[in-house]
């Protein structure tokens, strides 16, 4: 099945598993943030995003028998269990946390829009399994190959998630706040104080109820900072 797909893409005759990959590449690609379906790209080894194996899909490292090829698989998207929409008509498509522990914690949080329960929508775009991406560095090139087509909406990007959190924080500033909330904001506004989890456990432990304002629950534990 994958062979027939590969034949469709004559312009790229290589496969990521080939013993030798072409080194006479005439054209390198611009970095693709949202690679989808069965695509291949050749990036420059200087490309910063390619060096980081970046994707706007939430991809996590997966074991691969070939240690020269990095394999990543898609985690899908986190959606609102109430299927709510924001005032401007958008759906909630959160970015799944890459780290297992952080992702479990994330699913116990509430929808940032309606405070309903969150749900992880798994990716089944590769024959019922998650879409996989492969990365391989050879000489002056970084080869990329994707297998499967994502069967779920795009998660918000990291930049969008950060923007949303800062808007939520600004909104909290206008709502009546407890002394504790006020103190956290003061800590957060200190230069260099990016780790505020120490101040939050009391608040985080209550978010299971999924009814109170979830504005302060946007940060994940620092035991696994996202690296993708
Ligand atoms: Zn919702
Ligand atoms: Zn996917």
Automatic annotation (TrEMBL):
Domain GCM, chain residue ranges per copy: 12-167
SUPFAM superfamilies in alphabetical order: GCM domain (SSF90073)
Primary location recorded for the protein, binned into one broad class: nucleus
Domain of life: Eukaryota
Single GO biological process annotation from the record: gliogenesis
Keywords: Developmental protein, DNA-binding, Nucleus, Transcription, Transcription regulation
GO MF assignments: DNA-binding transcription activator activity, RNA polymerase II-specific; RNA polymerase II cis-regulatory region sequence-specific DNA binding
Record-level GO cellular component terms: nucleus
Stored PROSITE patterns: GCM
A Pfam family reported for this protein in Swiss-Prot or TrEMBL: GCM
Location(s), subcellular: Nucleus
PANTHER family: CHORION-SPECIFIC TRANSCRIPTION FACTOR GCMA, GLIAL CELLS MISSING RELATED/GLIDE
Protein name, entry field: Chorion-specific transcription factor GCMa
């Amino acid at each position: 099945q994958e062979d027939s797909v590969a034949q469709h893409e004559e312009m790229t005759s290589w496969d990521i598993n080939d013993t030798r990959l072409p080194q006479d590449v005439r054209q390198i690609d611009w970095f693709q943030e949202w690679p989808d379906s069965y695509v291949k790209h050749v990036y420059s080894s200087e490309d910063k995003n390619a060096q980081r194996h970046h994707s706007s899909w939430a991809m996590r490292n997966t074991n691969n028998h070939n240690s020269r090829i990095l394999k990543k698989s898609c985690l899908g998207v986190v959606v609102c269990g109430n299927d709510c929409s924001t005032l401007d008509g958008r759906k909630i498509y959160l970015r799944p946390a890459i780290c297992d522990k952080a992702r479990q914690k994330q699913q116990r949080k509430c929808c940032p829009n309606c405070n309903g329960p969150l749900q992880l929508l798994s990716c089944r775009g590769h024959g019922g399994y998650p879409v996989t991406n492969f990365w391989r560095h050879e000489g002056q090139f970084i080869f990329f190959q994707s297998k499967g087509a994502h069967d779920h909406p795009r998660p918000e990007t990291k930049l969008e998630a950060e923007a949303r959190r800062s808007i939520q924080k600004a909104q909290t500033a206008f709502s009546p706040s407890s002394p504790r909330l006020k103190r956290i904001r003061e800590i957060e506004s200190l230069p260099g104080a990016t780790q505020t989890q120490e101040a939050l456990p009391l608040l985080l432990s209550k978010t299971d109820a999924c009814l109170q304002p979830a504005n302060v629950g946007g940060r994940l534990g620092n035991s696994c900072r996202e690296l993708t």
